[in-house]
Amino acid sequence: MTNPTKKYLLLWAIFIAVMLLLPEFVSKGTLRTIIFANFLAIFAISWDVLSGRTGYISFGHPFLIGIGAYTSAILSYRFDMPIELSIPLAVLTTTIGGTLFFLPALRLKGSYFALVTLAFMELMYQLVQVIRPDLTGGTRGMSGIETITRGAVNNYYLSFALMVTIAISMWLLMRTRFGSALSAIGMNEESVRGSGLSTTKLKLAAFMTSAFIAGLGGAFYVHYLGSIAPRALFDINFLFTIIVSALIGGAATIIGPMFGALFLTILLEALRPILPGVERYLIYGSIALIVYMFKPQGLVVLVLDTLDKLRSIISSRS
Q: pLDDT tens digit string along 63-99?
């Protein structure tokens, strides 16, 4: 086992232990904030699998999250389908439907890919408002959607279990040859293609994996909220927060987006009493930019460096 692997395993162990004990030391209000951070981490991990690895920046992740959320909400709320069936069907719909929509975009590069994905998000925002509003709820959305469990503590542990299961699974997957190939695409796609590998198939697999996570997170998210509205789901600030969480936490690391999501969520809530309006997004964006400038590798590197310093101090004293 390599030294970097040991560092990450130690980081995983500390993170999981702290998160499991958290409900014993914080208020229920704080727990509800962390629940949102857990879901944000899932969305950021989904973005990181595709964009963090391959370098294909996606601005359309709320589109994928929306497919999962709306599918499960409509099936359970409008057709009385049990959540045990609506969530898997929502994930399947997101993976297949999202892939069919985005498949043509996978042959594009750079800003063209980003613009197409952004267009899909805007398209989804418009469609849910005008097509079958009797199903989607139109501009007002839907409320009274069945929830999986009740109470801040129960929802915290549910969201954490979902988040950490996805995170560990993706972390292990990205350590395989598949993850290495995706990273290679991000560095030099032509070289990967020259080695005989199909970059289109690799990008398609990455997108399907990303869509699967986004659909799963979106479906669970709507059944946590008990409501859904297009204005909140397809908001540009929501997209911005997902991307910044991945970048500031540490792109292409999987564990980094979790730290980024926690950091940004806590920062936003801390700014809310001071700046209750959208102004706080400007402040938190500035803070995120400063952190990213000084630590472009992300907060995860800062945490690992801190652990190394603590280990050195302990070793020198023993």
A: 999 999 999 999 999 999 999 999 999 999 999 988 8
How many other CB atoms are there within 10 angstroms of residue 30's CB atom?
16
The pLDDT of 38-46, averaged and rounded, is 97
Count other C-beta atoms under 10 Å from residue 311's C-beta: 12
* Both tokens assigned to 24: 């014993």
User: Structure tokens of 60?
Assistant: 């359309």
Q: Residue written as tokens 């809310």?
A: 272
Rounded to the nearest angstrom, the gap between the alpha carbon of residue 245 and the centroid of all alpha carbons in its chain is: 8
Based on its alpha-carbon atoms, the radius of gyration of the chain, rounded to whole angstroms, reads: 20
227 forms beta bridges with: 143
Residues in the chain: 318
Count the neighbouring beta carbons within 10 Å of the beta carbon of residue 66: 27
- Are the C-beta atoms of 261 and 41 separated by less than 8 Å? yes
Please report, for residues 129, 173, 225, the alpha-carbon distance to residue 133 in angstroms, rounded to integers and kept in the order given.
6, 40, 20
The pair of three-digit structure tokens given for residue 217, joined into one six-digit string: 């997170």
How many CA atoms within 13 Å lie on the side-chain side of 26? 17
pLDDT digits (tens, 9 = 90+) for 258-281: 999 999 998 888 888 887 777 777
Q: Among 55, 72, 2, which Cα is nearest to 215's? A: 72
Question: In 10 A of CB 238, how many CB atoms?
Answer: 16
Task: Out of 24-28, 103-107, 214-218, 253-257, pick the least confident.
Answer: 103-107
Q: What is the mean pLDDT of residues 181-210?
A: 92
Phi-psi region of 145 (alpha: psi -120 to 50; beta: other; left: phi over 0): beta
Confirm whether pTM is higher than 0.85: yes
pLDDT at 290: 83
**Residue 48 region, left (φ>0) first, then alpha (ψ -120 to 50), else beta?**
alpha
Bridge partners for 228 per DSSP? 142
